[in-house]
Design brief:
768 residues, mainly beta, nine-stranded mixed sheet, eight-stranded parallel β-barrel, globular, binds alpha-L-arabinofuranose
């Protein structure tokens, strides 16, 4: 076997800028019950069935006596915070909050800041506040608070925990005869991240800072645009102006992930957080369009939405003499936040958004030409909606286009060269959401291999971030995720360490280098897309008729099928490389669903599927299932009407798939062969640290070696991640991969099986 040799020409090439960052969304209780350090759940009695059908105004509270305690709305704290608790104690009454997870995490010796708003109805009253565990055991010395104001007034107290518990409770006791109104009952650890009030959990904030992200995309994806147009509607899209100012004046909001969002962690806090972790803020604003409900503001009424964008830029960057700059200064941040990026829309699908985007773009660029504007290309890696987004970006000269994909590792391996052919002159790609479907080490290593390709293409790829970021393990909406936690523990996933390596050792520029004698890449799958043919129901009743296969010049007819639920029947198969399948399909059920037709089906876990009416009957897609992991390769918007018969055709030519419905082309995609390279590498230089970083990824089970024909790393250091392919971190089992940070000398660089490495130079080799 010949030596693989690295030679470095040492020419600096494309700048990497802010390439690798993070994306925060309040999904999986990432904000409330997560990053936001508030320990009380439902602190202002605003939970409601619109958030979640199981919620009501006293969710997470236990009331001792419903006769004495009830939620009312006649005399609210303010117009944005309508519900409060009326206490009219016929006898001693208590209310107990259970916090999140199994309860509050009280730590011995730590201090906790309690506050609440009260209006006393009949003179001076005493309220006792206690921190206990779930058995009622005292955790801190109880405190008695005298309340006497006949106006709503805030009272506070500080506690020091004498014991540690993860089943903490907050208990308020009202003696018999108490008549008061209570709202915004809050408890924060004194020790928040960077000791800011109304802020972020210290451990989770540190976990983010340790990533060294270059940017923070916030406050969400679907969370931003799934909602009503009226900003005062409880189910409104995320409107940033609702999320700043005194927390008690921020309206509670329906979180589209099925819970309640207090907005306690709002835009001001996100800007502070960006600053605290050294990341560029990258807000996502709704583009007056909700693709989830086909809802959009009339073009004549875009003014408020565009003003929201202009005002946000002024809020972030304006001087204290500007209207919104003054608001920022009053909130305690005299210096500008230096906002550089702004995204309009998230995963937008449909012409309505793209008819509106130009209005935002023109108005923002006219006033703030230096703001980098981000357009969107929908939730799929290819297809008609994806192309629509890119077309809009090119026509409008957007700076970046947000691409999203959640796919199997095979897709990432097959798409290593996706960005090689992008136009360096055109808008840059922003991979605003991606992940490879599992939190196992193999997936993380494959993500690392893909990230070397993103780095290599930094002249075409501007920004990239994994998604989602956080998951409270007791409230999972979506997996995989980057960081798992509960109320007391944090467990970064194995994927986290890959992201961290790439952020920490990103560098400022690519460097020209050459690898000679690289072993042959291994072709895992370049076979034809043939095998079983199976019509399939997808959650509604469907009828397949006239199913025909044409291959090798012959046409075979199969029996029609009436299917329901997830029923599937293999009607036939083919071993031809080129073939055509035709069928008629009719949806007879009522559910907002469609049907599937599987082809090239080896088994249920390994198949190609034409999805007709996927994602709530909105799409036609080509999907692969590889070892049980699905990938949507291409998408076109399409809906299957009930009782209408569609004539459908699939043509497979080698690895090329084309579909038609009633003669109209729907999907077209070339499925590239699945090839595994023996190593994936990239070399960068960091002008600030005067260091070279050589990253190398081995996704195989064989050790690889590189001879370094350069002295750059002869006296350097090595950061290396290795693990078993199925290694996974969990709470309580946080170190399932090995992380080595060791000196490196010599010229022989070993890449163990399933490894991700960064070699670092320590000597000064350049002057700039
Ligand atoms: O990251 C989770 C979700 O995935 C985001 O909200 C959305 O943009 C995408 O569909």
């Amino acid at each position: 076997m010949k030596d693989t040799k690295l030679t470095v020409t040492n020419e600096l090439t494309a700048p990497l800028n802010d390439l690798f960052g993070i994306f925060f969304e309040d999904i999986n209780h990432a904000a409330d019950g997560g990053l936001y350090a508030e320990m009380v759940q439902n602190r202002s009695f605003e939970f409601a069935p619109i958030d979640n059908s199981d919620y009501q105004a006293t969710t997470a509270w236990e009331l001792s006596d419903p006769q004495s305690l009830r939620v009312a709305d006649k005399d609210p704290l303010n117009t944005k915070n309508l519900h409060y608790l009326t206490v009219d104690a016929k006898q001693t009454a208590t209310i107990t909050n259970a916090g999140f997870n199994s309860g509050m995490f009280y730590q011995q010796g730590e201090q906790y800041n309690f506050s609440f708003f009260v209006k006393a109805l009949n003179g001076t009253q005493e309220v006792t506040v206690q921190l206990t565990d779930d058995s009622g055991k005292k955790i801190a010395a109880p405190q008695s608070i005298t309340v006497e104001s006949h106006q709503w007034l805030k009272y506070s107290a500080q506690f020091t925990a004498e014991q540690t518990t993860t089943t903490g409770r907050l208990v308020l006791t009202f003696p018999e005869g108490t008549r008061i109104l209570v709202d915004m009952i809050s408890l924060f650890p004194k020790n928040t991240f960077n000791h800011r009030p109304n802020y972020v959990r210290a451990d989770l904030g540190e976990t983010l800072k340790d990533l060294h992200p270059k940017f923070l995309r916030f406050p969400g994806g679907c969370l931003v645009h799934d909602g009503q147009l009226d900003p005062d509607n409880r189910g409104a899209m995320y409107r940033w102006k609702n999320s700043i100012g005194p927390v008690e004046q921020r309206p509670a909001r329906r979180n589209n992930w099925g819970y309640n969002q207090t907005l306690g962690l709002g835009y001001f806090e996100y800007f502070e957080l960006s600053e605290d972790i050294g990341a560029e803020p990258l807000p996502v604003l709704p583009g007056a369009h909700d693709p989830h409900h086909d809802r959009e503001a009339p073009i004549a009424q875009l003014g408020d939405w565009i003003d929201d964008a202009l005002d946000l830029i002024e809020f972030a960057n304006g001087s204290e003499n500007s209207k919104w700059g003054k608001v920022r200064v009053a909130l305690g941040h005299p210096k500008p936040f230096n906002l550089k990026y702004l995204a309009i829309g998230n995963e937008e699908v449909g012409q309505a958004f793209f008819d509106r985007y130009p209005y935002f773009h023109k108005a923002i660029k006219a006033k703030y030409p230096n703001i980098k504007l981000i357009n969107t290309s929908g939730p799929f890696a290819a297809g008609a909606e994806f192309e629509r987004g890119w077309k809009s970006a090119r026509e409008n000269h957007s700076d970046l286009v947000d691409e999203h994909y959640y796919t199997a590792p095979t897709w990432f391996l097959a798409n290593q060269h996706r960005y090689d052919s992008y136009d360096p002159k055109g808008p840059k790609a922003f991979i605003g959401e991606y992940a490879s479907k599992k939190n196992q080490w193999y997936n993380a290593v494959v993500e690392a291999s893909y990230m070397t390709g993103l780095e290599r293409n930094a002249d075409k790829v501007g920004l990239a971030c994994y998604a989602p970021l956080f998951c409270n393990v007791d409230y999972k909406d979506w997996t995989p995720d980057l960081i798992f936690f509960n109320q007391s523990e944090v467990s970064p996933s194995v994927n986290y360490y890959v992201q961290q390596l790439f952020m920490k050792y990103q560098g400022t520029n690519n460097v020209d280098y050459h690898l000679a004698n690289v072993p042959e890449a291994k072709v895992i799958d370049d076979g034809p897309l043939n095998d079983g043919l199976s019509p399939q129901a997808d959650g509604t009743d469907v009828k397949f008729e006239n199913i025909r296969l044409t291959a090798n010049g012959q046409t075979k007819q199969f029996k029609g099928q009436s299917l329901s639920e997830k029923q599937t029947i293999r009607v036939g198969s083919t071993d031809a490389d080129d073939y055509e399948v035709a069928f008629d399909v009719t949806k007879v059920g009522d559910e907002p669903k469609g049907a599937h037709f599987c082809f090239g089906e080896q088994d249920l876990d390994n198949t190609f599927t034409w999805v007709l009416g996927g994602w709530g009957n909105t799409d036609s897609m080509i999907r692969t299932m590889t070892n049980g992991m699905d990938t949507d390769w291409t998408q076109t918007s399409w809906t299957m009407n009930k009782n209408q018969t569609y004539h459908c055709q699939i043509k497979v030519s080698g690895r090329h798939i084309t579909t038609w419905i009633d003669g109209e082309k729907m999907n077209e995609i070339e499925i590239p062969p699945f090839v595994v390279q023996p190593m994936y590498t990239n070399l960068t230089y960091d002008k600030k640290a005067s260091q070279y970083y050589f990253k190398a990824v081995n996704v195989t089970d064989k050790q690889q070696e590189i001879t370094l024909d350069t002295d750059l790393f002869a006296d350097g250091s090595l950061y290396q991640l290795t693990g078993l392919p199925d290694a996974e971190n969990h709470l309580g089992m946080t170190n399932q991969i090995e992380r080595r940070n060791v000196p490196f000398s010599g010229h022989q660089f070993i890449l163990p099986p399933y490894s991700v490495s960064a070699l670092m130079s320590t000597k000064q080799f350049r002057t700039q």
